Amino acid sequence: MNGEEGDNAPGERAGRHRAAAGGRRAGGAATLIAVAPGDLDAQPFTRAVLDYAAQRPGQPLALLQAGCATAGGDPDLGKLRGAGCELAVSLVDDDNRLARATVTARHDLVMCTLCDLRIAPLVPRSFDIVHCALLLQRVSHAELVLDRLVETLRPGGLLLLQTGDRDSAAGFLDRVLPGPLRAMAWRRLRPGKPGPYPAVYERLVSERGIESYAARRGLVIARRQALAGLAAGPRPFWLPPLGRLAGRLSRGRLTPAHHELSYVIRKPESGFARVL
């Protein structure tokens, strides 16, 4: 389905701040909120699932995690279960060498199904929640893959989407840096983990792309967030200045203010919706 190299470029830790997002948004002129990894707002998915479950007391929830090889700890399944959520979790990812290595190395992913996500055996309207975790930037035919995931949602269900941003300086560097530099950055930021993953970044994989997609599909964007970096390890010293240089040379087209995008998106009960 795609190549074997690349993943989203490593993040830069930053304090919480407002980040001006480039381009016209499908839902209006509201600004994305950029947050640092330790900020409470960096875990919107867990709260979104808790809110969803609170409206359906006693109802078991089916959750699909797509991109489980690169998923982090949000939503926090342990916290959700501790709060009384009854969850049935299914795991899928793109079938490539790196995903296979990750699944093999982690016992918690033993039930993951690896396949071509364009033709994945997913049943329409079978999940309450779909978590798409740092997947879209590393696969080709990203819009078709996202269509398949949205199709699995029941009416009223939630799409929890986290992705790299094609229009960020980090996304640009991830696409253009030579393989050895990408590998060096990956080893520093994610020591011992297979990678780097492919860096595809189709046009969908951007703020404008995601919000245009939501508008065309009649989906409701309940929350937008820009993530200023989620790196676990020390970043190479040359990455932040290189990102700032890329932003300046692009004359503002590439933002160094954030590296990833996070959305809570609702599939409406009816066929009509508007982006909030």
How would you portray this structure in words?
- The protein is α/β, with parallel strands linked by helices and 276 residues long.
- It has a single domain, classed as Vaccinia Virus protein VP39 (Rossmann fold), CATH 3.40.50.
- The protein has helices at residues 44-54, 77-82, 97-105, 142-151, 169-176, 179-189, 207-217, 239-249, and strands spanning 17-18, 33-35, 61-66, 87-94, 113-115, 127-133, 153-164, 220-227, 260-266.
- Strands 1-2-8-9-7-6-3-4-5 form a 9-stranded mixed beta sheet, with helices on both faces.
- α3 links the parallel β4 and β5 (113-115).
- α5 crosses α8.
- The longest helix is centred in the first third of the chain and has 11 residues, at 44-54.
- It is globular.
- Residues 1-40 have low confidence and may be disordered.
Based on the model shown, name its key terms.
276 residues; alpha/beta; Rossmann fold; 9-stranded mixed β-sheet; globular
Layout of helices and strands:
Elements: E1 17-18, E2 33-35, H1 44-54, E3 61-66, H2 77-82, E4 87-94, H3 97-105, E5 113-115, E6 127-133, H4 142-151, E7 153-164, H5 169-176, H6 179-189, H7 207-217, E8 220-227, H8 239-249, E9 260-266
Parallel strand pairs: 2-8, 3-4, 3-6, 4-5, 6-7
Antiparallel strand pairs: 1-2, 7-9, 8-9
Helix pairs in contact: 5-8
- Oligomeric status of the shown chains? single chain
* CATH 2nd-level architecture: 3-Layer(aba) Sandwich
Compute the CA-based radius of gyration. 18 Å
Strand order of the largest sheet: 1-2-8-9-7-6-3-4-5
Strand fraction band? 15-25%
Regions with little confidence, pLDDT below 50 for 5+ residues? 1-40
Helix/strand order: EEHEHEHEEHEHHHEHE
Which structural class should the secondary elements be placed in? alpha/beta
